Amino acid sequence: MPVADVARRTVADALAATQLGDLDAAALQTAGIPSEEVRRIRAEAVAVAAAPIDAGLQQWLLEARPAPSAGLPPAFVARLAAQPRAGATCPGRGRLVLEPPEDHAEHCAIVAISGVILAPVWGARVETVFLAALAHHLHNALLPDAGFAGEVLLGEWLQPAMARATTLALDDLSPARARRSRRPVASCRMRRRPRVVPSTRRIRSTGCCRSSTICAPRGPAWTSSCRRWNWFMPGR
Questions:
Q1: Are residues 111 and 169 both part of a single domain?
Q2: Can you spell out the DSSP letters for 65-121?
Q3: How far is 191 from 211, CA to CA, in rounded Å?
Q4: Is residue 179, in this structure, part of any structural domain at all?
Q5: Residue 90 domain boundaries
């Protein structure tokens, strides 16, 4: 099944769930609602949820069709689902634990859905955004999430360890699917300069913070792993 079709069905289902909760198509049909009515109800739910987004994307989502059974997911999906996210960490400071912890599988799914919704803003290809988002934590199928603080301690070994762990996860796929996934996975290694907000003394970043006042003095080993929002600016 083409990646774009999987993305469309996944995002449409997620938008419908914002209105219907766990009332998915299977539950509604089991309750005796005819298939045509189920499709109408779910399309209406998608339309309500999609009202604020790009008009072209909204129409594309409304054309989503039920997906055929995809069979069992790759083995790394279960490992990601069993792997909790680290929470907010920073070298030299205590860990902020979030309860209940988000797991890496649901995190990647939410990032993929959000990425598709935002893709028109950046002129990005939906297929690339969706697949890259799903794959951006493949290394955590092997490596437990130690957070920013733990990654800093790995220093120069962080990137090769992540690359090796990602390769091992991709080995769960067929050779053709693994080859197709490598380019979006590689795009996850891109870095962006952060935007420093002086009034709050926070760094807002989706990439490394090598230009920030907290990381720059500590060198490449410190900055190479910063891929998330850093809320730990000195003086807060």
A1: yes
A2: -PPPP--SPPHHHHHHHT-B---EEETTEEEE--SSPPBHHHHHHHHHHHHHHHHHH
A3: 11
A4: yes
A5: 75-149+156-187
Q: Does residue 67 lie within any of the structural domains?
A: no
Q: Are 117 and 124 in contact (CB under 8 A)?
A: no
Residue 70 in domain: no
DSSP class of 231: -
Residue with tokens 């999430």: 145
Tell whether 35 is covered by a domain.
yes
> Do 100 and 36 meet the contact criterion of CB atoms below 8 Å apart?
no
Full pLDDT tens readout for the chain, 236 residues? 788 999 999 999 999 999 999 999 999 999 999 999 999 999 999 999 999 999 999 999 998 887 666 678 999 999 999 999 998 888 888 888 888 889 999 999 999 999 999 999 999 999 999 999 999 999 999 999 999 999 999 999 999 999 999 999 999 998 888 887 787 777 665 444 433 333 333 333 334 443 333 343 344 433 333 433 333 333 33
Whether 143 and 149 have beta carbons less than 8 Å apart is answered as no
CA torsion, ordered 179, 182, 183, 185, to nearest 10 deg: 160
d(CA 67, CA 71): 11
Of 37, 62, 87, the residue that ends a domain is: 62
Beta strands in the chain (DSSP E): 88-90, 93-96, 195-197, 202-204
Phi, psi of 103 (to 5 degrees): -95, 165
Distance CA 195, CA 189 (A): 19
The enclosing H or E element of 47 equals helix 35-50
Which residues neighbour 222 within 8 Å (Cβ) at sequence distance 6 or greater? 91, 152, 215
